[in-house]
Amino acid sequence: MQVRFWGTRGSLPVAPHASTISDKVADALFQAQGQKFPDKQAALQYARDALPFAVGQGYGGATSCVEIDVGKGAFVICDMGSGLRELGLDTLRRLSEGGRDKEWHFFLSHLHWDHIMGFPFFVPAFVEGAKVIIHAGHTDAETALRRQQEEISFPVPFDWLKADIEFRTLTPGEEYRIGELTVGLTRQEHSHDSYGYRFTDANGRSAVYSTDAEYKIDKMGEEDDMAEFMSGADLVIADTMYSLADSVTMKEDWGHSSNIVAVDLCRKAGAKRLALFHHEPTYSDADIARMHAETMRYEELLREDSAPIEVLCSFDGYCLEL
After folding, report:
1. Residue 149 maps to a domain
2. Exposed, middle or buried: residue 160 (CB in 10 Å: 0-12, 13-18, 19+)?
3. Tens digits of per-residue pLDDT, 64-106?
């Protein structure tokens, strides 16, 4: 099972300002003093391997879109954020190489705009003979997707799409079979509700996608339920939009969780890896890198004699093999 991250920001797509780019270049030049590179490839290798990630690379700015790929059959995608456009083009490239079905299965966490805004730019939906199945815990998923392509908002109506598009409403607690994958879902605390998904392949490897969920001290029962849903997962992709201080003060009831809560959940669940996800759009690359470091340190302090949790920080273009 490969997990590919095509969009990892929350709430709003972001692009770096010109000053942000020049600041990164200046940091890279300063840290590379005395280095000589015979060609661009050598300089690129240095940027990737020797410089801190927040200096030599970056976390990206597309909103939520994650692919769960077993290498054959239909394509399986979590959410339709702005990262979906690039994913759509890449799946068409892979189709041209043969061995894949002309079929895309979407699993929607919820219907807020940052999680569906990529669909009008999803090129396979314009392809004759393509099959697109949209799974959601919400009964109004079709209404939301059609509404964002009404004439007042978008020039291409939903009915102009050429793919065969089907909507399926899923029930929490039940399991569904999509090719090689078994899929289950659970309700999460968020405005208009959201749903977390668990994907398990034929070899028993599992990935949990849990974004736009808020857990509170006075509702620990929900946290216990989610830990059970995540139990033993090889990977948990978790909403870590805020620091703990923000999540319990300024941004309580905003529908998101913290990096600290994510570690606590994974520890309780016995999960093997945690991927920080749904990054705050106002955070710089340096801010996200700092949160990643703090999360790893918290996990170390909490570990004691238990097995370590590998704490990863997702970024646009990241591919992880389970």
Report:
1. yes
2. exposed
3. 999 999 999 999 999 999 999 999 999 999 999 988 899 999 9
Tell me the residue range of the domain where 304 lies: 2-13+59-321
Find the mean pLDDT for residues 208-217. Answer: 84
Measured between its terminal Cα atoms, the distance across the chain in Å is: 5
Residue 44: inside a domain, yes or no? no
CA distance 162 to 158: 9
Domain count, the chain: 1
In order of 67, 133, 311, the CA distances from 273 in angstroms are 17, 29, 6
- pLDDT for 274 beyond 60: yes
Integer-rounded Cα Rg, in Å, for the chain is: 20
Query: Residue for token digits 């808020």?
Result: 214
Residue 42 lies in a domain: no
Q: Indicate the burial class of 32 (C-beta count within 10 angstroms; 0-12, 13-18, 19 or more).
A: middle
Residue 127, domain CATH: 3.60.15.10
Q: What length is written for the chain?
A: 322
Per-residue pLDDT reduced to its tens digit, 38-68: 999 999 999 999 999 999 999 999 999 999 9
34 within some domain: no
